[in-house]
Amino acid sequence: MTLSHELNPIPREYRRMISTSINASLYPNRLGLYHQAGRCAARAGYAKELLIANCVGGMMPPEEIIRRPIYSVMSGPTWHPSPACI
Predict the structure, then answer these.
(1) Which candidate in 58, 59, 66, 78 could, as Cys together with 51 as Cys, close a disulfide (CB 3.0–4.6 Å)?
(2) How far apart are CA 80 and CA 67, in angstroms?
(3) Beta-bridge partners for 53
C-alpha cells in the first residue's frame, strides 16, 4: 500500500496521485529485484551495507527504495542478475 502523503507530501492532489500510482505500479517489480541483488551481493562476499542510487542524486538502502520504488526511476545503471545468482 502506498500512502500519497508519505510518498510525496505536497499540497497538489494531481501530482500526489500520479506519483503514488507510479510508485504502486513499480512495487511488485522492484521488490524481488532488490531482494535478489542483496542476496547475490552477500553470496559474492560483499559484507558492507548495500546502497542503491536514487533519482535525486543520493543513495538509499534496499529497504527504503523497495518502500518507495519511484525513487529508482531514471537513477542510473541497472542491475540484471546473472544465472549464478538466481
Answers:
(1) 59
(2) 20
(3) 59
User: Whose grid coordinates read 502506498?
Assistant: 2
Instruction: State the amino acid at position 61 in one-letter form.
Output: P
pLDDT tens, position by position, 47-86 = 888 888 888 888 888 888 888 888 888 765 555 556 666 5
Give me the residue label for grid cell 559484507: 47
Q: What is the pLDDT of residues 5-42, one digit of tens each?
A: 788 788 888 888 888 898 888 888 777 788 788 888 88
Distance CA 63, CA 73 (A): 16
The DSSP line for 1-57 is: ---HHHH---S-HHHHHHHHHHHHHHHHHHHHHHHHHHHHHHHTT--S---EE-TTS
Cell readout for 12 is: 497538489
Q: How far apart are the first and last CA of the chain?
A: 27
